[in-house]
Design brief:
By secondary structure, this protein is an alpha+beta fold. The protein has two helices and seven strands; from the N terminus they run ββααβββββ. The protein is globular.
Length: 107
């Protein structure tokens, strides 16, 4: 069970569910997966709370991709899995293009 002290951040999305990220998992994302995201937690939080677009994954109906325009006309994508009403961050990355999938929310 996750304790409060282990939570790095928790936000409510426009789809009205919470997304949690633990300190340990944020470290994994920023040190092993996508080092470019070091120091970008505010941008990730903003992309989850106020995305430009949310798409549903084509391969897993419980996975959502939260897109927000970032600098240099690129997109910041936060990938979230929703289980039992709650969400957790799978990964986040910067990309040139939005992946295919059903648009389920847009600004």
């Amino acid at each position: 069970m996750i304790e409060e002290k282990d939570i790095f951040f928790e936000v409510v999305t426009p789809l009205d569910f919470k997304v949690r990220v633990t300190n340990e998992y944020w470290q994994l994302i920023t040190t092993k997966k996508h080092r470019i995201l070091i120091g970008k937690e505010k941008e990730i939080i903003n992309a989850l709370e106020q995305p430009d677009q949310i798409r549903r994954s084509r391969s897993d109906r419980n996975v959502y991709l939260f897109y927000q325009v970032s600098s240099l006309n690129k997109w910041l994508c936060s990938v979230v899995k929703r289980l039992n009403g709650n969400g957790f961050l799978i990964t986040a990355y910067i990309t040139n293009a939005i992946k295919k999938g059903d648009i389920i929310w847009s600004k």
